[in-house]
Amino acid sequence: MNLSIRHFKAFLAVVHTHSFTRAAEQMHISQPGLSLMMQDMESQLSCRLFERTTRSIQLTAAGQRLLPIAQQVVDEVETIAPVLSQLSEKRRRTLRVGVPPIFSASVIPLVYMRLRKTEPTLDLRIVDLPKPEVERQVRNGELDCGLGVFPKRVPEVSRRPLFEFDFVYLESRAAPARPKTHGRPSRRIRWDELPAVPFVELHHTQDLQQQINKCRAAAGAARTDGIRMNRLESLIGMAAAGVGPTIIPTFAAPVGIDAQVSTALLVDPVLSLDFHLIIKRGREQPDVMEPFTRTLLEVIEERRDRIHRPAEQDWD
To answer: What are the residue boundaries of the HTH lysR-type domain, all occurrences included (predicted)?
Structure first.
């Protein structure tokens, strides 16, 4: 017999949802794949577990006998797995971190390289994922922690604000028309000074874009429909190519001298939001979490200084 914990989880998902379709969605597999898994389970146990009709799914007598055993197996494995994992991680000094792609491209490489010098025994494992997947893997214990903007409470997860970030206006250095800044430092621009041209933006359903739109509306800034994208790195690429200006968080802003963009900090008002670290509620934090977060904050502060410092070479 070769039943796995995944067999038992799939069985319980069907029992609790009363639906193969909903259970498959919960297990993140296809409905035919779930059906084959249940057929394999029934074959190995030499009995039918479900009576299926066009309208309902009912447990057979054998399925009812299996139910409390399956629940006990899953509960015990999920209870002991994090304990064993934490014991192993303490020996290896491993930290598994989920980060949004733009953060893994702009900030994490600097953190990683610095930690190689200051914490050479730290095994830092970075996984770049969309925000919902970071939440899911932290909640399931697949990641020790996650980074990102989480404005709403996340079930089973504790949030810790790491730092505040604000926003910058960004456009190609070859842009034909630049907003007038009334002689103020070149890296500052008011929201009401934004040009009335099509912007490259995130989709309006995303939290960051909603905050940007509120600030623009409050400042009475003119809006023109532009291109909408799903990722911050796409906004930067489009703006650098001259498609149109964009507004992005400071933690995502290019700061290298070779960047083909100009940036200006948005002020009056300064829109500040929290960037969070999330962990599974009640989970013991690895010892290497502290040097990781300390180094991350050092890198963020250095980037902040470079972005906020006026520079004469921009907006010439």
So the answer is: 1-60
167-271 shares the fold of 5-86: no
| pLDDT given for residue 91 in this prediction | 54
**Cβ atoms within 10 A of the Cβ of 70, count?**
21
Cα three-residue angle 37-39-42, rounded to 5 degrees: 110
Q: Which fold has domain 5-86?
A: Arc Repressor Mutant, subunit A (1.10.10)
Q: State the burial class of residue 152 (Cβ atoms within 10 Å of its Cβ: 0-12, 13-18, 19+).
A: exposed
Tokens 């074959």 — which residue? 43
| Residue 308 confidence (pLDDT) | 65
The residue written with tokens 């940007």 in the block is 212
**In whole angstroms, what is the distance from residue 95 CA to residue 111 CA?**
13
At residue 67, the pLDDT reads 94
Domain 93-164+274-305 class in CATH: alpha beta
**Helix or strand run (H / E) with residue 299:** helix 289-308
Please tell me the distance from the alpha carbon of residue 150 to that of residue 147, in angstroms, as a whole number: 9
Contacts of residue 188, Cβ cutoff 8 Å, sequence gap at least 6: 181, 264, 265, 267, 310
Name the token pair of 147. 């980074």
The candidate with the shortest Cα–Cα distance to 207, out of 150, 163, 252, 159, is 150
What's the CA angle centered on 117, arms 112 and 119, to 5 degrees? 80
Would you state the pLDDT for residue 80? 83
Q: Where are the domains of the chain?
A: 5-86, 93-164+274-305, 167-271
Domain at 167-271, CATH class: alpha beta
Residues of the chain with pLDDT under 70: 85-92, 175-186, 255-259, 308-316
Per residue in 255-276, pLDDT (tens digit) is 654 457 888 889 988 899 999 9
- Give the single-character DSSP code of 158: E
- The answer to whether the pTM exceeds 0.85 is no
